[in-house]
Specification:
CATH architecture of the largest domain: Orthogonal Bundle
Distance between the termini: 50 Å
Number of strands: 7
CATH superfamily of the largest domain: Winged helix-like DNA-binding domain superfamily/Winged helix DNA-binding domain
Largest sheet: 3 strands, antiparallel
CATH topology of the largest domain: Arc Repressor Mutant, subunit A
Helix content: 25-40%
CATH class of the largest domain: Mainly Alpha
Length: 213
């Protein structure tokens, strides 16, 4: 793992980061031919033949097919992967896959890898702690990115419209009881408690000022 990944957008989301590592660990290390329902499909180095549903299982709890599709769209937009819809599955290709398999240090750039020699700089306990704190702070940044709000609402299985939540608070300068909001996740949990007092008929909730007095 190259240290410069800490400057990449994927580092800001722990679940996206782990899912990216799952992709790198799942794709082929060498060319193979795969049998899928009596059809032989070629799967080259750096590729996989998994459906979106199968990827949701690889990524684990909280991952839906729609969330996988959204994540893949982000990766494709950043030219990190390519996908090809086949008749029975999806071929995923990691762009520049060989770059992720190079354990040598080049251009005097420091890297971290458990398999490197003893002269490789090791990430210290302090750095790990700082990284975790950084992730925590970035997840609570005000205003939060829409994708983080969507992810948090999906994780809690609430009935809140993420875009409405952002628009509501944006129009009020992200103020809460006269003070600048410090934790948008706590604000969402407050909305959840408010929703128990409203009859919504299964629809996404729309609040009024009176709900927060």
């Amino acid at each position: 793992m190259h240290r410069k990944i800490r400057d990449h957008w994927i580092w800001q989301n722990r679940q996206y980061l782990r899912a990216w590592f799952d992709i790198l660990f799942t794709v082929n290390f060498e060319d193979k031919k795969v049998l899928i329902e009596s059809e032989i499909i070629e799967c080259k180095r750096g590729q996989s033949l998994l459906s979106l549903n199968e990827w949701s299982k690889v990524f684990g709890h909280g991952w839906t097919v729609q969330r996988v599709r959204t994540f893949f769209d982000l990766l494709k937009k950043d030219q990190m992967i390519k996908t090809e819809g086949l008749r029975k599955t999806t071929r995923l290709t990691v762009c520049n896959y060989d770059n992720y398999q190079n354990n040598q240090q080049t251009d005097n750039t420091q890297t971290t890898d458990r398999q490197q020699t003893s002269n490789t700089q090791v990430t210290t306990t302090k750095e790990i702690k700082e990284s975790k704190e950084r992730i925590k702070n970035e997840n609570n940044i005000i205003p939060p990115p829409l994708e983080l709000v969507v992810e948090y609402c999906e994780k809690r299985s609430n009935n809140i419209d993420p875009q409405y939540f952002i628009d509501w608070n944006e129009a009020r300068g992200w103020m809460l009881n006269g003070r600048k909001m410090k934790d948008w996740q706590a604000a969402i949990r407050t909305w959840e408690s408010k929703q128990k007092q409203k009859t919504n008929g299964g629809q996404k909730l729309k609040f009024t000022e009176a709900d927060f007095k």
